[in-house]
Amino acid sequence: MSEDVVYSEVVFVKRNKVDKDDPDECHLGDSSRAPQKAKQCCDWVRMVLLLLCILLTGALVALSFQCVYTEKKLEDLQQVHNVLNENLTAVLQDMLHCTQKLSKALYDSACPKNWEYHAGKCYLFSTNKLSWTDSRDACISDGGHLVIINSRDEQEFLIGIIKIEVSFWIGLTDEKLEGQWLWVDNTNLCKDKSYWTRKEPDNWKGHGGEYPSREDCAHIHKNSIQDLKSWFDAVCNKALRRICETRSSRQT
Ligand SMILES: [Ca+2]
Ligand SMILES: [Ca+2]
Q1: Cα angle at 50 between 44 and 52, to 5 degrees?
Q2: Distance 219 CA to ligand 1 centre (A)
Q3: Chain segment 138-192, per-residue pLDDT in tens
Q4: Residue that wins the pLDDT comparison between 86 and 41
Q5: How far apart are CA 186 and CA 195, in angstroms?
Q6: Residue 245 pLDDT more than 70?
Q7: Predicted confidence (pLDDT) at residue 13 exceeds the cutoff of 50
Q8: Strand, coil or helix: what is 245?
């Protein structure tokens, strides 16, 4: 028996709807190829997302390395800073030391040995005793003159140096004319710049006239720490210490 095809038995199945229960399919239309295209679309999205994740991970790793590198660089810079700071401190200390040595050298060179510096002048306070005339000559031999006191500042300086109850000749005399006091440079004593102690000068001749030559030379004699009035007239042949004065090589 021959197997003839009977076309009346052919059944045409029309697919009118897409199975909505399939979660993997994209619904792009009603054509018969829509599910395949939707699947391809989802695959592309996954690939793009995966690529973005890879790139993000790479960026995070790069940032981590950059952070580590920056921290290391910062530590190195901090160490360099510390070393430079230590070196700078050492240099500043050396400069301070040199400045102090230079100042001391300048100060020491301002006056001859054993002379005291003050306000551009040098002063010698002798330890030996001579008459006023010999003291005047000794100061000249030493390169100066008996002290001439021109200001309160100078008087304060001298009083600050000498000890209580120790007398020193100063460069003041009235030998030429009684009562006319002259400094050794022949300038007159100004009354407002004199520091006679109380009741001096008195040109005292002694209780029984034992000082006929009278008192014609001045000396400084500190009575107390604060009292600037410390000058006396005395007989010139009396042996006392002396204060010599000369200009300093440093005029400041
Ligand atoms: Ca006198
Ligand atoms: Ca006197």
Answers
A1: 105
A2: 12
A3: 999 999 999 999 999 999 999 999 998 899 999 999 999 999 999 999 999 998 8
A4: 86
A5: 18
A6: yes
A7: no
A8: strand
Residue 214 burial (CB < 10 Å; 0-12/13-18/19+)?
middle
Quote the distance between the C-alpha of residue 143 and its chain's center: 39
What distance in angstroms lies between residue 164's CA and the mean position of ligand 2's atoms? 18
Q: What are 214-230's pLDDT values in tens digits?
A: 899 999 998 876 789 99
Ligand having the closest approach to the CA of 236: 1
Residues β-bridged to residue 116: 123
Topology (CATH) of 116-247: Mannose-Binding Protein A; Chain A (3.10.100)
Pairing assessment for the beta strands 241-247 and 167-173 based on DSSP bridges: parallel
Q: From the CA of 199, how far away is ligand 2's center (Å)?
A: 8
Shortest-distance ligand to the CA of residue 197:
2
The DSSP call for residue 51 is: H
Please tell me the distance between residue 247's alpha carbon and the centre of ligand 2 in angstroms.
30
**Bigger pLDDT: 209 vs 201:** 201
Half-sphere exposure in the Cβ direction for 189 (13 Å, CA)? 23
Q: Do the Cβ atoms of 231 and 200 come closer than 8 Å?
A: yes
pTM flag (> 0.70): no
CA distances from 173 to 151, 196, 207, 246 (A): 18, 13, 22, 19
Q: Which two tokens stand for residue 46?
A: 């996954």
Q: Tell me how far apart the alpha carbons of residues 124 and 16 are, in angstroms, rounded to a whole number.
A: 133
- Residue 30 φ then ψ, to 5°: -105, 5
